[in-house]
Design goal:
This protein is an alpha/beta fold and about 260 residues long. Helices cover about 40% and strands about 15% of the residues.
Amino acid sequence: MASSGQHKNAWRLRIGGIGLCLLLGLAIQHSSLGTWLDAKYLDLQTRALKKYFPTEVKNDVVVVGIDEATLEAFPEPMTLWHRHWGDFMRAMQVADASAVGLDCVMPDRSFDDIVPGYDNSLMSGLLAAKKDRPVVLALTLDSHGDTRTLYRKFELVAGKDNLGYALFPVDIDQRVRRFDDSLATGDQEVSTLVGQMLRGLGMKTGSGFIDMSVGASYRYVPLHEVTQRYEDGDVEGLRKIFGGKPVLLGTVSAPVNNIRTKD
């Protein structure tokens, strides 16, 4: 039979092992490895909730995507897409979208010297769209980390409350999982594009984790199909897709399912 001394040694080893495990767990929790593991565990939870307990959104955001097909459909370089930006915003006006966010690089200068009337084709679309809804233009950063300026006339037409940074906090694995209504840059806080859209809709803003488990799987409507519907005068079709919904326009790079708008 084991002696009392052996029993005491066994208990010391057990307690020591438990203590070592606790210390190791605390060390991992407060390390970059622990942060990475937490992020991956959150992703696992999100996928499980979306697969087994899907939650619908009554008025989900519609994404309009600039994809390879759009780049092929528009003959001009993106810098000269003034007419297409204008047609898109006029399409949102006739479709009666509830809010519009343009998460793309807008012109930073006038091109009227190159093509007379180009600036007006964009500004007239912006003015038409913002009559009955918030239209928010994205602010971005240049290679030096400074705010990339918009052409002054476009900025004035949009209004300061309709400008926001298209930026999100990035986690340790360079993925976006959190939202912050205002981002700190040095000693100053700046508004985000999404935050400005929410305020324009009269909704509350804040900060926290983005619930990726709700809503339908990510799909988008190609931009060139939207502008084609507008040129064809298909108001009914535009209202069916965008009516009463917030719309976000941006570049899509990953292969995802797009919402077909053609029969």
